Amino acid sequence: MSIDKDKIKHISKLARISLDSKKSDSLAKDLSSIFKFIEQLNELNTDKVEPLSSIINSPLRSREDKIDDGKIRDKILENSPKKNEEFFVVPKVIE
Amino acid sequence: MSEVVNKNLSEIIELIKKKEIKSEELTNLYIDRANKSKKLNSYITTCFEYTTQKAKEFDKKPNFNSLLPGVPLAVKDLFCTNGFKTTAGSKMLENFVPKYESTVTENLWKEGAILLGKLNCDEYAMGSSNETSYFGNVINPIARDTVPGGSSGGSASALAADLTPATIGTDTGGSIRQPASFTGTVGLKPTYGLCSRWGIVAFASSLDQAGPMTKSVKDCSIMLEAMAGFDKKDSTSIDKKKENYSKNLKTNIKGIKIGIPKEYRVEKMPKEIDELWNKGKSILKDLGADIVDISLPHTKYALPTYYIVAPAEASSNLARYDGVKYGYRSSRGNDLIEMYENTRSEGFGDEVKRRILIGTYVLSSGYYDAYYLKAQKVRQLIKKDFDENFGKVDAILTPSTPSSAFKIGEKTDNPISMYLNDIFTVPVNLAGLPAISIPAGLDKKGYPLGLQLIGKTLDEQNILNVAYAFEKNCNFKNEIKNWWL
Fold it and tell me: DSSP string covering A67-80, please?
């Protein structure tokens, strides 16, 4: 499949990555060639094949439903680009 | 004393145990060499003051019963290290200082190793040449202007240049084995679930595995023993007893069946690689192994499958980088959404963006079945190929890479030609199997070439044994001329 600029615009919106026009052009070109490569898979008939989502056979372990915050709130906040006391700060969301 | 840095990890451990060298002296040798080797750009961050202090503490109260007593080690900058910057090779994490330690590195420190610093890598481990790192290209000590491979390029370069006695990397599609092959070193990707993924910056969670990179097979067994083990913090960690890989290492491989898959003889593969593969076969045959021709019919579909599965998982994993809780935040944008979009646009490099967009697309409404589900089905067929053959053979021998190390810039314009580097390594990740790359020869230019041994699930000991026997009979010698010093 060839990927055009409109499609790139749509996907980049979904992925929350802003792109200028030049970048969109080069990505459209790259992704078109990558999808052409990927689409070799269509040569295979997989109608009767079960999808493999994990190579670990056993079901994922679950843990006890007990809260453990590690008591490292302040340490975690140290890495925040912007904070106010014990809160992460983001641009205004509600008018 | 300067030749100590040329030694293998196992020899260095002996020197320490026999008290012929102190941890502090050893540490100073590596620090000195790192300071003279900045041209290689192997390191992103060093923590030499910390290393020296820890080495002094070790020398005061040495514990020689651990696996890595007082051994200084540098690690790939994808492992979170408590209190030391962990960048994943990205502008996004340029100033990120984890408040916790990855399980794998914690295991190394518990065995007596000491952190030297963090090694360069492709951004978020996405790349095969270390050219996608925000912190610049890494040079392969084999030759000027040559890539060390990737994504664990800094690890491979530092190891081959004797800046660390051993190291660790991560391997999602070949990121340990390909750079090991390019630098004439040993690299092992363990069975999925053998080494904990906890505290490793995530790329593709169903494929990522940490593993050792070393100068010898014995070193590799020591490092694997130190790293591996069950971890309840990783929900896909395998709950099994620890194995003594180094103690159980043996060279007798008589009667072992080695499969040679015909599909790995790809078009346009250099003659030298084919010859190397034949040389590998005859060495193993002379050691008493049975060589068996096998077929893995879906091999050619592994790379296209990988380029759906890995970007899909990456797009989901990398959604967390939003400029709010940690990492880079753009100063541009009038509202929250614009802040997100600008942060991710400015914080991620081109290859990472490319893969996030591929992943977003294949998971998007209306395309999921055609791409992601299709890829999961082909992944099943690829795994089945291996399952069926592992009834007949004990291990599989293939080349590690379709070429030797290439020049910086040679493949950056064409993503597909870059992706083709991983053609022999990717199937192993899709099937979750262990595989080791061992140096096997030099090409016309004098650049190293590796061979890959693929094993059954959790059969690391067996491929280590075959590799050990191979190494003893191959007489490979790396030709590194210290030109950068």
Answer: ---TT-HHHHHHT-
